[in-house]
């Protein structure tokens, strides 16, 4: 009887232990399913909220079929189905970005979506109409009148530059999408909508340079740009659940792990310095670079720098006009994008128009870790010295502009001298 009692006690203990393990297993299984389902739901919700490219396409194609708009990409997008929207890269719902294929061409498709017209320092510094009305120019507008509209718009955007007439001629050439020698009203409406976008304007201004991807085609304010094969400029993407546990210093170091050889990095860096040069008192006025981060740039197989996202490269005249109207209590209220900060005039509670840091200082800060990592010992010390002098640049006084040009030329010369004798140049 004693043995049976012991056996019974042992069986009860085993059963209790098994029940406890079973319950523990069930609890953790349920928790894993719950957490997994929540993550999938959040990811799916954010994807469906962000990625609305097909809504954008349907809206554009509806207007094309009604004869409201026309452009070089319309037929392929809406009739022949030879222009496909691929992977979604959208970061903000109002600006849809997709990879795309157009016959044999690989490109990036961008389409605008926003509800109401406004200027907002939290968004792009460009006005937006509901679903873009495409109501300008109006019926009966002559080509000469349209040219005048373009000139006035460009003047408002970049100031009264001497060669705006040449830029207007280039716009009219793009507007004639089917190259039949005539600009139809639907073609003109598409072109006018594109002219409202900073990225399109910058591509026009810098089209003779190598730093902006080529415009492949458009339909309304949906447009297709040349694909940049390598992007971002540097950095690795990690799941957010891992990201939160990595110290900032280690994260910065990890961003430089998968980068090209130093001579290739030098050529890419020279490209960014040349871009700064091109937009600083360039042919068509000055532009401010308000997001000089690695994600805004990429490069091609020849290691030529390319602008990936030009929404935050804005004409200085427009920036100053908008920022003056911004109410403020502290300097941080006067920030546009990630990098264009002015100061707050506390007597008027309005932002001042002059940015505190020039484009070059922001570019050097973005390049510092990138170009110093792996730098040859015979140039590293001088390179570091020049970069820190560059990062310290402030304001935009005449004296500062001279120093700005000197540092920019010194950096370019230092890098070119080191790589000019190599095949990488």
Automatic annotation (TrEMBL):
Where would you find the membrane-spanning parts of this chain? Answer: 25-42
Q: Where in the cell is it found?
A: Endoplasmic reticulum membrane
Keyword presence, Glycoprotein: no
Q: What is one term from the GO cellular component aspect held by the record?
A: endoplasmic reticulum membrane
InterPro entries listed in its UniProt record: FAM69_kinase_dom (IPR022049), FAM69_N (IPR029244)
Domain of life per record: Eukaryota
Which intervals hold domain FAM69 N-terminal? 16-174
Q: Which UniProt keywords apply?
A: Disulfide bond, Endoplasmic reticulum, Membrane, Signal-anchor, Transmembrane, Transmembrane helix
Question: Where the protein is mainly located, per its record?
Answer: endoplasmic reticulum
Q: Which Pfam families match?
A: PIP49_C, PIP49_N
**Membrane topology label:** Single-pass type II membrane protein
Family annotation (PANTHER family): DIVERGENT PROTEIN KINASE DOMAIN 1A, DIVERGENT PROTEIN KINASE DOMAIN 1C-RELATED
Which family does the record claim for this protein?
Belongs to the DIPK family.
- This protein is called Divergent protein kinase domain 1A
